[in-house]
Amino acid sequence: MEQIKITVNGIEMTGNKGDTILTIAAKNGVEIPNLCYSPNLKLYGACGLCLIEAEGMPKLMRACSAVASDGMVLSTETDRVKKARKIALELIMSDHEGDCVAPCSLNCPAHTDIQGYLKQIALGNDSEAVRIIKEKISIPASIGRVCPHPCESHCRRRLVEEPLSVAFLKAFAADRDLESDTPFRAVCEESTGKKVAIIGGGPAGLNAAYYLRLSGHDVTIYDFMPEMGGMLRYGIPEYRLPKDVLRKEVKAIADLGVRMVNNTKIGKDISFDEIRKNNDAVLVTVGAWKGSSMRCKGEDLEGVLSGIDFLREVNMGIIPDIGKNVAVVGGGNTAMDACRTAVRCGAENVCVIYRRTRAEAPAEDIEIEEAIEEGVQFLFLTNPDEIVGENGRVKEVRLQIMELGEPDASGRRSPVPVEGEFKTLSVDTVISAIGQKCAPAGFEEIELTKWGTILADATTCITNLDGVFAAGDATNKGASIAIDAIAEANTAAKAINAYLLGMPMDFPEPYYSQRNVTAEMLADREKKARAVMSVKAPDYRKNNFESVINGFTEEQAREEAKRCLECGCHDFKDCKLIRYANDMPISPDRLSGAKHECYKEQRLVTIERDQGKCILCNLCVRTCKENAKQGILGLVGRGFKTVIKPEFDNPEAVSVCKDCHMCADLCPTGALKIL
Question: Which long-range contacts (CB under 8 A, 24 or more apart) does 582-587 make?
């Protein structure tokens, strides 16, 4: 057959005379974007993505149908082509009604594939579930126990009855995997010869170390405490996170070859400059170990403790003498940890002082409930005005009575003092748990924010120093929940890997198609109550540091995981449409207008058809007619109202359709799902 030569995007390639441009490019390993082309079907040219510009030609051509001529010089990356392709994508996406990723995953700071691992738990594949979780979280058994699970607030199951117990299911699968004879272990890539130092062995440092080691880098973590784990080890009480669980997960990271150096303080045992000189990159994840000031008179008295310091001592086995009467100031989870720990340390009267109402307390409601069950009293709408002492030690705390004033800029009502109204509380110890901040001693060269945190780029985590990155509670906005630190560590690890390999540190926010779902749309779903995990009785648990929760039984976990509605697209990882949509910035909303009616049907017997995801590429219709020789699918209607519908003319066609699946295999968007 006669050969011709063409040039596409500067690459010279050979093809057969009579071949299309797209065919020649594909045979030479060059992909020209397309959604409606298949080499096994007649040419169609519907999607408008395969546009290409040829030298000397006034109009753009469709590469899937344009026959190549010898000597053609073509480009798929000119401004004209990009503009036309962008409009085509925006038009398609403006009428695309489907969730690329489930809302739970989108609202998990680490963007774990929640739908994916819940399905594996439902199927009994705990190791596979852990493999999926560890794509984003290296210590799932620990995080599953302490995460306040923002994902659950966005679980669509809440529109039916209650959200899934996502966090505890994560812990269930991870526990089962840790206890198995063959726990999941990822494989590291070949050594790059690059060295990375991580300063701080908390959740951010551990997570970054895990993924950098998997990328083939030599990783060392330095930490000033005796054991790795950071606030998970020294700030979370044993009754919430058993330390043996954390130790096992830390050991699994060490077993990958991560070197861990404890009892090492920067600026004392080793200098920051020395670490920089001996490594190709440095990640600072020192956390926030300093308690915030209450800014009231008397807080320097003996018996006034920082919640962070108090919890650290107890977690190190040092039970401080806090007396019988203890007041904890704050309304967050650290305050709950402190008050419940005080009960376990022998305090008889423990109260929590919080300047807002219970409804506004940032602590998880279950933490407040369990604290009340254990005898903790709550004094809402009160605030320390003065801590009064005797002989240098705290004796009582004078409380200002508060009320909620007008909403602030965020819409939250600010507490304001009620003039002249106070109450006095006799106390032996006051524990301040109103916040925490980093103490960046030893890192004087790193630029700080006006709040005293490390200034790090939000996209790359890089600081003002070349090769020095920062993540976690020590950066930018300061301390937050552990999963936020882990998410930032993932960003840092990705950026460091790119930096070490000389790749661009450019990570644009991905585009996802999202669907607005209402309770009415899920009204036909069977109601299944959320699994309730048993906990130890209050009178028993308040006298020890044993784990409060008893964990899910296997039957509970499997049934709870089966409640997942599987909101995300089953074909997301192979979807050509979303891949192309992320090749360039698109704004489908600017072309918003009428949409096709969205519905799902199962008339294709073993295939679920989602009209909302159909882009009328016609691949299914054509393969049914040309390859399967059935003609079951067809276009119905004209113009914008055109849709694809099945039509069974005879019973034999039903049985053919049942075993065929050609249409689903070719669908580029996930509109067809094999059941």
Answer: 582/508, 582/510, 582/511, 583/33, 584/82, 584/85, 584/86, 584/89, 585/508, 585/511, 586/86, 586/89, 586/90, 586/93, 586/511, 587/90
For the chain, where do the domains classified as CATH 3.50.50.60 start and end?
195-289+437-500, 293-435
Listed in sequence order, the residues at least 6 apart from 101 whose beta carbon sits closer than 8 Å to its beta carbon are 111, 115, 512, 568, 569, 572
CA-angle at 662, arms to 659 and 667, nearest 5°? 135
Tell me the C-alpha distance between 549 and 541, whole Å: 10
Yes or no: domain 3-77 corresponds to CATH 3.30.470.20: no
- pLDDT (tens digit, 9 = 90+) per residue, 477-488? 999 999 999 999
Q: In what order do the strands lie in the sheet with 51-54?
A: 11-16, 3-8, 73-75, 51-54, 61-62
Tokens of 534: 């048993």
Looking at the predicted structure, is the pLDDT value of residue 286 above 90? yes
The CATH number given to 596-674 is: 3.30.70.20
What residue type is assigned to position 641 of the chain?
K
Banded pLDDT at 520 (limits 50, 70, 90): very high
Residue 506: pLDDT band (50, 70, 90) is confident
Q: What is the pTM of this model?
A: 0.93
CA gap 366, 92 in Å, rounded = 45
CATH number given to 195-289+437-500: 3.50.50.60
Q: Which of 348-352, 358-362, 410-414 has the lowest mean pLDDT?
A: 410-414
CATH code of the domain made up of 293-435:
3.50.50.60
| Per-residue pLDDT tens digits for 593-633 | 888 888 888 888 889 999 999 999 999 999 999 999 988 89
